[in-house]
Structure formats: C-alpha cells, structure tokens
C-alpha cells in the first residue's frame, strides 16, 4: 500500500485550509496513494486557542467532516483526517479529534487526543488544557488489511499508548510540533516508536511560519519498521510518499522477534 503524509502551514481561515487540504489529498491520490493523512489542526491554526470553539463541530455534521468524507469517496482514499475540534460536554472545551474516513466516505474511527501538551521555556508558553478536553480511549482501525493505531502529536512522548496497539502495521502521528521541541525530539521519537513496535509510522505535520506567529517544525515523514526514514518534507506544504511493504514488515519481525520476547 502506498501511503502519503501531507504537510501544511495552516492559518486562521477555515475555508482556505480546507481548500489546501483538498489539493494535497488530490495530489496524493494522483501519485498512487491509497491512504493519506493530514496534520494536526489542518483545518485551523487560529490567533488564539479559543478560536477552536467557534468552528467546533458535532460528530457527523459540519463542513470539515463533509470535506473529508467527500474527498475520501471521490478519491477512493483512506483518509486519516489530522485533527479537528469536536464539541465536548463542557461548552468552553473541545476534543482534539482524529476522524478516519474509508474510500466509501464513511467515518470508521475516532480518536480523541489523550495527552495534552504544556510547555513553557520563558519565551514560548502553551497549555492545551485551557481549551481541550482530554480523551481516554486508544483507537485502532483496519485500512484494507493494514492495522493502524492512532495518536496525536504530544502522545508521541508516551510509548505505553503505542504498546497498547501492538501488533500494528502502521502508527499514525498527525502533529503540530513546535519548532523548538521538534528540532530536538521529533525524528528521534518517531524512529523510536517505529523500532520498538516494529511497524511503519506515518507522521503528517504542520511545517512553517503561521499567520498567528507560531512556527512549527514540519519534517512530515514516513518511517519503516527498522527505523529508516523513507520520505520527508522538511518545511512548507508538501507530501511525503512511501510504500508500506508487508514483506518488509514480516522480514523485520522474523529476523528480530522482539515483540515475542516481551515480558512486561
């Protein structure tokens, strides 16, 4: 299966972001991708955290979900829809949600980001808990025989989540890593998750300078189960494209059967 990680530099204009995402999905399909993934916050990088509240959707309704469903159906793609704000029980909170759409346009999986990012180095300060309500349920789905585990951005630092999916063929990590943390930890952690779980990793990211002044690291990539980076987009809009090879997956697991050696 050919898979595509779509990198964006989203802004505060929802309609413009949806057009950009559609363009990337169309390009991925034209290049032979059967599964494509968008980055975290692909639909909105607002001027402030609370901007998410204004465009939050009810599950199953809204322009963001309609675009993802239509693109999946028309392009015959599995789409991992980055994240979008889904309404929470509390009116001043949203869930940071990944929705997966099958080639028929049906929503087949939902994952709400479990680990909420907080960071303060004296110059940059983030606290997702001000607006987000954390999820609690790991979610995996089957994409035409490819067992795929879902996560979002900061989840990458918590290997126990990924172990709960084992065995999976593919792990998805849509993200909007800050430039500061991404420069030091992004590739390191992605390759570690691939190696320790002996599976492919697809990591579509935000990558560039955003209208709100934030700079994200980018480097959307696809990593194989031996930890090799197969494709990467350093910065700016683009697509990392690679083949998920079932034979390669089996070879790695056979020559080093670490998954069968676990004791804890």
UniProtKB/TrEMBL annotation:
Top-level taxon: Bacteria
E.C. number(s) listed in UniProt: 3.5.5.1
Pfam families cross-referenced by the UniProt entry: CN_hydrolase
Domain CN hydrolase span(s) in chain numbering: 1-246
EC category: hydrolase
Ligase among keywords: no
GO molecular function: nitrilase activity
Keyword annotations from UniProtKB, A to Z: Hydrolase
Stored CDD domains: nit
Family: Belongs to the carbon-nitrogen hydrolase superfamily. NIT1/NIT2 family.
The protein, known as: Nitrilase
Species whose genome carries this gene: Roseateles asaccharophilus
